[in-house]
Amino acid sequence: MKHPITSYLCLFLAIVVVHAVAQDINQLKKDVSFLASDELEGREIGFKGEEEAASYLAKRFEAIGLTPKGTNGYIQEFSVKPSNNPHEEVKVGEKGDSTIIGHNVVGYIDNGSDNIVIIGAHFDHLGFGGISSLYKGEKAVHNGADDNASGTASIIQIAKLLKNRNTNNNYLIVAFSGEEQGLWGSNYYSKHATIDMEKVNYMINLDMVGRLNEEKALAINGVGTSPQWNKAFEEIGDRGFKLIKKESGIGPSDHTTFYLKDIPVLHFFTGQHEDYHKPSDDAEKVNYEGMVEIVQFIDALISSLDPKEKLTFTKTKDESTRVPRFTVTLGVVPDYLYGDEGMRIDGISEGKPAQKAGLQVGDIVIKMGDTEVKDMMSYMKALSSFKKGDTTTVVVLRKKEKIEVGIEF
Fold first, then answer.
1. Surface-to-core class of residue 20, CB atoms within 10 Å of its CB (0-12 exposed, 13-18 middle, 19+ buried)
2. What are the Cα distances from residue 209, in Å, to 187, 219, 260, 360, 378?
3. C-alpha–C-alpha distance, residues 202 and 43, integer Å
4. CA proximity to 390, closest of 367, 372, 368
5. 352 lies in which domain range?
6. 282 has pLDDT over 70
7. Cβ atoms 91, 81 nearer than 8 A
8. 149 within 8 A of 124, measured Cβ to Cβ
9. Which of 291, 319, 347 is the C-terminal boundary of a domain?
10. Is the terminal CB of the chain with fewer CB neighbours within 10 Å at N or C?
């Protein structure tokens, strides 16, 4: 039988933990709600909303006690000169006609260490839509609550946890701009860093961590960029998550910039959804309790690595460099959190071949034409064999039943 004092102490500690989690949820809601508000008009780089978001983040960094590490306080301003020539690179860091001005927000925790951990997320989004929007209606603000107010709010919480803890590393906390247009902010920072990049131990990127589902599926990309990553995951356990780990350090987010500088990286991601790159990606749809769990998981990972030596970098077989080229589409959003055989459908576009053929969300594509679909790569390989006007059959599993449908591209 427990002593009454022990019981009271356990109860008190449980109440303290619950209260702390409630406070974290509250703060995450405040940060995401502000960043994803209509007033910021989608935080598109080069527009007033992006600048207002950067100013807000600078104040949040100051409030939790981060040292300014931009070029003007917390802000690192940069310029981009887009090209009208599709064969010419965008010139990041150059000024001229049609120059776009962006703002990275940079804070620092200096523990006097020789090693630096970078924790980053992009805070920009699509404004009123543009070429990357998947929305077909009238002009509307794309608030980007999950993409990526969720990641931005989370890195503030992580930074707060790291104050006066895990002191064998210094921590650079960066909110990048211009990610949606092509990793502009992280590209600029990597070439105009306010720290010694040779001292970087590893980089963690949080991009879209606001939609943790009932399965608690959490994708972690980049685990092949250091042999120490998987050892650390074994040490801390899965903590209730269904972890979907991928080796490649290359992907459509800011961690790629640092991987290309031979730095071990991880990218945390809770998956795409029907609101992705649409005006409906709003703050009330975010899973804030799930965000707290992800923040705690990353904190545990950092804690496990803190006493260890600097991570060893390894190059990965980058899937994106081997992606087959295709000119047609099925008109579906793949479920990137699906870890079994086949390609599970997570969303279906109006008026596209999949919808016309009667395919449904949750269907698992296992064959397309003569190609067995084992994963995303074989799905894209199958698509690459067709052109507009071609017809074929697609076999899907629907509630364990095989269904064959005709498709016209």
1. exposed
2. 22, 9, 23, 25, 27
3. 28
4. 368
5. 325-408
6. yes
7. yes
8. no
9. 319
10. N
DSSP for 162-196 reads: HTTSSTTSEEEEEEES-HHHHSHHHHHHHHS-SS-
- The answer to whether position 2 is within a domain reads no
Q: Which two tokens stand for residue 299?
A: 């904190």
Residues 6-47: tens digit of each pLDDT: 655 555 444 544 556 788 999 999 999 999 999 999 999 999
Residue 349 clears pLDDT 60, i.e. is over it: yes
- Joined tokens for residue 103: 């703002």
Q: Assess contact for 232 and 301: CB atoms under 8 A.
A: yes
DSSP state of 145: I
170-191 pLDDT, tens per residue? Answer: 999 999 999 999 999 999 999 9
Beta bridge partners of 244: 219
Asked if 82 and 96 sit in the same domain, the reply is: yes
Angle at 95 (CA atoms; ends 89, 100), nearest 5 degrees: 75
Report the C-alpha gap between 264 and 311 in whole angstroms. Answer: 7
**Which 3 state secondary structure label does DSSP give 213?**
coil
Asked, for residue 296, whether it belongs to a domain, the answer is: yes
CATH number, domain containing residue 374:
2.30.42.10
340 and 315 in a single domain? The answer is: no
Number of domain units in the chain: 2
CA atoms within 13 A on the CB side of 28: 29
Q: Letter for the amino acid at 266?
A: L
Reported as a single tens digit per residue, the pLDDT across 98-110 is 689 999 999 999 9
Exposure string over 248-269, b if 16+ CB within 10 A, otherwise e: bbbbebbbbbbbebebbbbbbb
Cis peptide before 201 (omega within 30 of 0): no
